Amino acid sequence: MTHASHSAYIRYNNQSAFVRRWIAMILLQSDLESTLLFSGLEPMLTRGFDTSPINRDNCEDPKFIRAWLASELERCGNEAFDESDVFAINTRRIQKSMGLNKVELAVLRFACLVNCYKPLEAAAELGGICLAEADLCDLLSSLLDLPFSLIFKALRPTGLLRQSGLVSAGDNWSETQHVTRWLRTPDMVAREVFRPQNEDNLLLNVFYTTAPKSTLTQHDFPQRTELGLLKRYLRASLKEGATGANILLWGPPGTGKTEMARHLAQSLRKKALEINTVDLNKQALKATDRLDCYRFCQAILARSSNALVVFDEVEEILSDGSFSEFGFKSEKGFTKGLLNTVLETNSTPAIWITNTVRGVDPAYLRRFDMVVQLNTPVERFKKKIAWRVFKDLPINESVVERMVRHKNVTPAHFEKVNRICRRIGVSTPEEAGLVASKILNGDLKAVHARPLEAARPEKKRGIELPYRPNLINCDTDIQALTRNLDADASVRICSFGPPGTGKTAWARHLAESIGKPLLVKHAADVLDKFLGETEKNTAEIFREAEKTNSVLMLDEVDSFLPDRANASRHWEITQANQFLTAMESFEGILICATNLKDNLDPATMRRFDFKINFDYLETEQAALIAIDLLEALGVKVTKSQESALCEAFRNLELAHGDFAALLRRYTAMKVKPDWRQLVEDLNVEANFRNAHQSRAIGFLAELG
Description:
Elements: H1 17-28, H2 32-38, H3 62-76, H4 86-98, H5 102-116, H6 118-127, H7 133-144, H8 148-154, H9 160-164, H10 179-182, H11 187-192, E1 208-210, H12 224-240, E2 246-250, H13 257-267, E3 271-275, H14 287-301, E4 307-311, H15 315-318, H16 336-345, E5 350-354, H17 362-365, E6 370-373, H18 379-389, H19 397-405, H20 411-423, H21 429-446, H22 478-484, E7 491-496, H23 503-514, E8 518-521, H24 523-526, H25 533-548, E9 551-554, H26 570-585, E10 589-594, H27 602-606, E11 610-613, H28 619-632, H29 639-648, H30 656-669, H31 675-693, H32 700-703
Parallel strand pairs: 2-5, 2-6, 3-4, 4-5, 7-10, 7-11, 8-9, 9-10
Antiparallel strand pairs: 1-3
């Protein structure tokens, strides 16, 4: 950009008679006597004038200076505004975009110049230091040669200039103040209106941009119901021309908020206009500047129903100073009343996007018609998105599965991995897997999340014992319970007993019987060292179960539901209360498993509909499982051996887990034991478990 391409109207050596006439007229109406008495005419004020008649003898003579200004005013003549100047072209573009009339255009041009051209600003400060509203309109009427009534109408609060924020009044429209306080123009306008622009629409790209098409479809969003409702609401608002239609999308970064906003516009066949976060020099815009950009965009779209406004990263705009402990900065460049007005009067539906609502003023939240939370999609939605993103990238299915399973990996991470792999020219699945792991583990470490699971070689499925409900030893008829529960059931079950007695196996069998997936979570998925994160994880687990329509099993539940009577810290009680609240509101099948029932809070136990005690196997049950194991390994068992097994197990406490451990051992060693070897090995397993459970050293005794 060359120096010559800038507007001539704000240059130091501006010779425009048009602007000099304004300066002369303002000074002639000012209190010259006081000005000359205290400071004299500064060189800035007389720039461009013929000052040769002024000398040391007459420079402080008010009559002489007034006569000199009158002659200079006459010498300026009636020069017209140069419509070929960059400033003129840009303001005409604004006029066309917003539908300004010629009076509003004239006022806008004067406001821009009086805020940006120093000689005119200095003259205005001298001549208009104590103007009331009527005085301002009188001054502008004489300067612009337009009727007072039209000037007054152009500056009314409901007019386009002030509604859009292109021209704003001072702190109080009823008070007296100088011209530059009456006619403020946003910094964004002042910076760009005197520079050449590539677009016919000055505000496009400078203040907002047209969004690209969404890369996601409606099937990629778990929030199907909310998405359908949003479309219906936006369609109706556009059809009716409703004012104050605003939607707030919030959730962690990378969960698809911006993509959802773009998809909504695309599905309604509208353009999505996104408010800029940086200026043309790629410098971050302040919150005040971004709000100005939003207001300009709304003013332009007031005459159109062909777009939606997308306002992303609005944390600092919606934040309140009282929420500073959450890390928000509250910029006081605009008032709460202004933002309330912005939310209530927008003519085009707007979608506001933020990563969190913590620290957002409740007065703002209630002005949004719909507030929708987006979380990291569940696995089946993530998998669909991942394969669409990686469709042209050589990458192993196992790598994608590991990414999909990780709760902190979002669709935005898929896009990031794909972009970097393409940029560096990844050509093999092995290389793609390595790059993906390095990129994602770096991101995950930065947010204190666990890394991706390590790659595991494909394994042949081992020999498994058949599941037989009649071989579960418990105090409840679980076969009848399984038959009577269906996919719509809402029950809370506590399964307790020694390790390996079949609690998880029955939960898996129950889920399969009613045709639902089983979602198993352990204490490590819930507990977190950071304050408040455990409660957040608890809520997220229940949400995931609802979204995936799963049977939810929480193992090691005693770890986060201890007896509150023994709690020594406030957060322990808070965690338990959060869990109980989530449990009571969950409308599905919840199974909580524990090896340490006595450690549970009594109030928690009362909330379970079924309390099922899984115990060690009966003698006959153990013998039947032993026969299943031997036959699975290809060892035949005779009738006499069956009787011998029953006799051997008569005083032995055995669990399903003991048999499963031995089956894995025999399979790994390629051993086919006889019934005596099996009995001997089971005795060793039982004795080891009993010795381990009898210890009372530190926390080991509680691990069970």
